[in-house]
Design brief:
- There is one protein chain.
- It is built from 14 helices and two strands.
- Helix 1 packs across helix 6, helix 3 packs across helix 4 and helix 13 runs antiparallel to helix 14.
- By secondary structure, the protein is an all-alpha fold.
- Strands 1-2 form a two-stranded antiparallel sheet.
């Protein structure tokens, strides 16, 4: 959607086939990232369904199912990544004659996403609680989410329409704070959300020891007793719901949850303010405002 809105932010012309193929390529890249991310996080569910490696393992119960499921899911993710490239390479320029200008953005998107994933891995696990760093947590968000799910898709669509530097800068000024707000909301839903709506467990991020802004803020503000609760729970693969409830109480008592809610509001306001005088088409601007509201108030 963001890729198409990027196109519409520059021109009133209908998106040609090339734009839809680029958007589809982004979807396949996103699929690759999710499949591999679920493996790294040992996640069991995604959108209310078994993750790829769990689903594949269930098909081969007569084998070393867990290992086969993981290995096959790695191949599945690789296949999605390969198909993402294939869609781009077989896209004919046609009306989208600016496709060659967009290639550096594709390459940057892939590099940034993998760097963000690496930083996320470094910041996860029991050891992460010993060195809380809100700045580092926000850096992960920028590379793992804000750039690849918001900024680059918008820029790619705009590039295909022949956008100038002012339009591209305006889209970045909107996308980066919105992407951060989106991920901050996701982090809260990962701890407080309704699994029936989110499709994921509220224990996964805690058991993984994700170094989120929420966790880092709580650790920085915690009393010694509160810090002990966090350090024994975050990254504990055997974490129980009872211990998770205690962690949530610490998140609330330290003001970490409120701080993240305030940061979401601030970043959303920054994104919307970037649209005030942006040289973008009115219809696209209205869509971007609606998307911002939906992204930060979502419950799933």
């Amino acid at each position: 959607m963001l890729c198409v809105v990027g196109w519409q932010s520059v021109t009133d012309r209908q998106p040609p086939q090339a734009v839809w193929r680029v958007a589809a390529s982004l979807e396949l890249f996103h699929l690759f990232a999710l499949i591999h991310d679920d493996i790294m996080d040992s996640s069991m569910t995604r959108r209310g369904q078994p993750t790829a490696h769990c689903s594949l393992a269930a098909r081969h119960a007569d084998r070393d199912a867990a290992a086969l499921g993981v290995n096959a899911a790695i191949l599945l993710g690789d296949l999605a990544l390969g198909w993402s490239y294939e869609l781009l390479h077989t896209t004919r320029p046609g009306p989208a004659r600016h496709l060659s200008r967009a290639w550096p953005l594709f390459n940057a998107l892939r590099t940034e996403t993998l760097v963000g994933q690496y930083l996320d891995l470094l910041g996860s696990g029991p050891g992460a609680a010993a060195r809380p760093d809100v700045t580092a947590a926000r850096r992960v968000i920028r590379y793992k989410t804000a750039k690849y799910t918001c900024e680059r898709p918008l820029q790619l669509g705009a590039h295909l329409a022949g956008a100038g530097t002012r339009a591209l800068a305006a889209l970045s000024a909107y996308a980066l704070p919105l992407g951060e707000a989106f991920q901050l909301r996701d982090d809260l839903l990962g701890v407080y959300g309704d699994p029936e709506r989110t499709g994921k467990s509220v224990l996964d991020d805690l058991r993984e020891g994700k170094h989120t802004v929420l966790a880092a803020t709580a650790l920085q503000r915690a009393t010694p007793a509160q810090a002990s609760v966090l350090r024994t729970g975050l990254g504990n693969r055997a974490l129980t719901e009872a211990h998770a409830s205690t962690i949530r109480e610490v998140f609330g008592a330290t003001g970490a949850r409120t701080a993240v809610e305030n940061l979401i509001s601030q970043r959303c306001e920054e994104a919307l303010a970037a649209l005030d005088d942006a040289p973008l088409r009115p219809g696209a601007t209205a869509t971007l405002r609606s998307l911002a509201a939906a992204a930060v108030t979502r419950t799933a």
